[in-house]
Design goal:
Elements: H1 7-43, H2 57-69, E1 78-86, E2 89-92, E3 94-106, E4 112-124, E5 135-139, E6 142-150, H3 156-170, E7 177-181
Parallel strand pairs: 6-7
Antiparallel strand pairs: 1-6, 2-5, 3-4
Length: about 180
Amino acid sequence: MLEGLRDKEKRRIWQLGGLLLVGLLLMGSSAWLSTGQNDAVSSDLPMVAAPVADLSPEAELEQRLAAVLSRIQGAGQVSVSLTFARSAQTEYAINASTTVRTTDETTDSGQKRSTREQTSSDNLVLADGKGGPVMVQQSMAEVQGVLVVAEGGDNPNVRAQIAEALQNLLAVPAHKIVICQAEKV
């Protein structure tokens, strides 16, 4: 399958295959880790202070919101769950190149035949210093709805402050925000 390719092209295919394998391993481990985290979230509310280093941007946003909202006077421990219309997206710079080769030949019988071969390749642009891909554009996730469970969720003033904070922080209308009182333990 690789016989007609040059060494440089073969090396690039092996590198892309290796990157694909690493990506699949990361996706698999991410799913495995998120399953373990979901079990922890369902147990109790004091999950607010958990580290956010290895979380998805969406999960990190939930934890950051919980940490901020728990600082509202009377809110107590807070847990936040978000639903998304669209997840965060990142677009990376790509070098695209196309090579066209045309061969014209005449057969022994005098007929002219033309062959056209087109090759395209897309490569990520890598930063010189870090070696990582160059980001062109990044958009935040679009929040569709918010559920907040707070110890002080029975207090109308606390509920109003939480709702106002979420409306301003996330640009979500009030009718898409639900605030509930946490179960007394």
